[in-house]
Design the sequence.
């Protein structure tokens, strides 16, 4: 019996770990398994033909908020073309809010939660002609048996994904991880052995991204793994999502010894408003998180990514501005995210109480709440776009280092720049050229910032341009 496991990824550089986790037990049981991966940029007609020409008995669709709509379209169309095939949906986006799928009779089965064992049982029942439940799964599996799942020669992007623990010790009200309890860990020894396997997989992989929800939930285990990764035999770059308040002096010492670029840390701050954190079930010391992030960033060898979320309970526009200012400068990248009311989360269950208005379709982004208006959320969306173009790109570092302190606060600087650019009809910012991006920043400084030494500022802009654009600065910067 032939099974196709299918994923749509966000971009070419991504690969889907989930379908690889399902492949291994299915193959051990004697099934023929084919993996198919596409990206959101691929044409639906092309993807449909690819799936159809495999002539599989079972098609498994890996569903997330970013791909659920094309997934449903493809699955329904494929079923109409191949009614004898079985259509199975799995993944976070179909594990909760199951009432949405009750009338979709072209779905043969849905696998909730961890799918390794449930998918195997389902496929065996289908193969043997036995009755099977339309909805199955949700039980924890023997996670430590899993390996790296990628294979030599397999075409992937520049990032490979690895899971050294499953589950999260926290219950954040906006996160799907709150729907399950407990954390299961692979041992230090197993983790390090499996990371060495990546060294022998001949792909174009540059980064191993740990998908652990909180890598350092066990700080002693995390420190042991980090210490071992100092060895030169581990040649990749490694990305971890961590809780900064769990770092101890040993953690800081080990992290300070990594070569530049070998480790990336993603830290969730989300807000510095105590009432917001409490309502979101975020039991953290925000000042300690910021201090830890800045301490690592200031060493200069580990890339630190800090997250904020707009739209959380009790966070109005002024409160978010304070959270932004508190966090600014403590990381290499400050990411402005926007609350999404995911099925299965506490905040979705309390949407009426909090007067949330959100997109009715994925990704369910919050548009306004009891505390923040739609206009204010849109302003924050514009600021996030400007941050991405100017700050996160790293192409304006000297200029921004000079300009930002000249405003009353970092937030007011970015708010002002976003309004200035919007009034010049520059959205979407991706469409403007790099020379124009430099020109707009110069014009903003000229028109809105009296304290600017224009001669000095032009030199900084010119230095940024020369460093990153590999060409002579345009005339307006000379």
Sequence:
């Amino acid at each position: 019996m032939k099974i196709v496991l299918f994923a749509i990824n966000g971009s070419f550089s991504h690969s889907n770990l989930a379908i690889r986790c399902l492949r291994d037990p299915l193959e051990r049981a004697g099934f023929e398994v084919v993996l198919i991966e596409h990206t959101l940029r691929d044409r639906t007609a092309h993807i449909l033909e690819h799936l159809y020409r495999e002539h599989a008995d079972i098609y498994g669709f890996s569903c997330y908020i970013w791909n659920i709509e094309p997934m449903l379209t493809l699955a329904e169309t494929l079923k109409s073309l191949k009614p004898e095939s079985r259509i199975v949906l799995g993944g976070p986006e179909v594990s909760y809010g199951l009432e949405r799928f009750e009338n979709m009779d072209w779905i043969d089965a849905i696998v909730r939660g961890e799918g390794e064992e449930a998918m195997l049982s389902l496929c065996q029942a289908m193969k043997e002609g036995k009755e099977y439940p339309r909805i199955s799964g949700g039980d924890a599996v023997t996670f430590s048996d899993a390996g790296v799942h990628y294979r030599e020669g397999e075409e992937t992007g520049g990032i490979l994904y690895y899971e050294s623990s499953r589950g999260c010790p926290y219950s954040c009200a906006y996160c799907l991880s709150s729907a399950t309890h407990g954390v299961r860990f692979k041992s230090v020894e197993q983790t390090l052995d499996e990371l060495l396997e990546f060294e022998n997989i001949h792909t174009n992989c540059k980064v191993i991204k740990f998908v652990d929800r909180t890598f350092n939930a066990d700080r002693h285990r995390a420190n042991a793994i980090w210490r071992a990764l100092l060895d030169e035999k581990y040649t990749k770059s490694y990305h971890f999502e961590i809780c900064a308040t769990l770092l101890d002096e040993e953690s800081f010492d080990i992290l300070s010894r990594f070569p530049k670029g070998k480790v990336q840390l993603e830290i969730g701050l989300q807000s510095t408003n105590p009432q917001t954190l409490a309502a979101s079930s975020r039991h953290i010391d925000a000042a300690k998180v910021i201090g830890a992030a800045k301490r690592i960033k200031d060493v200069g060898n580990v890339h630190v990514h800090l997250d904020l979320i707009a739209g959380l309970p009790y966070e109005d526009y002024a409160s978010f501005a304070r959270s932004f200012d508190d966090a600014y400068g403590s990381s290499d990248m400050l990411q402005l995210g926007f609350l999404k009311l995911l099925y299965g989360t506490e905040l979705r269950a309390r949407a009426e109480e909090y007067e949330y208005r959100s997109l009715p379709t994925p990704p369910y982004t919050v548009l306004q709440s009891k505390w923040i208006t739609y206009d204010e959320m849109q302003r924050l969306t514009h600021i996030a776009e400007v941050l991405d173009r100017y700050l996160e790109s790293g192409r304006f570092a000297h200029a921004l280092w000079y300009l930002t302190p000249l405003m009353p606060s970092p937030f007011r600087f970015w708010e002002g720049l976003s309004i200035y650019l919007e009034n010049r009809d520059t959205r979407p910012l991706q469409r403007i050229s790099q020379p124009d991006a430099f020109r707009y920043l110069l014009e903003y400084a000229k028109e809105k910032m009296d304290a600017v030494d224009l001669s000095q500022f032009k030199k900084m802009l010119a230095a940024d341009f020369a460093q990153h654009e590999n060409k002579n600065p345009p005339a307006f910067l000379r």
Observations:
- Residues 2-137 form a domain with the Rossmann fold fold (CATH 3.40.50.280).
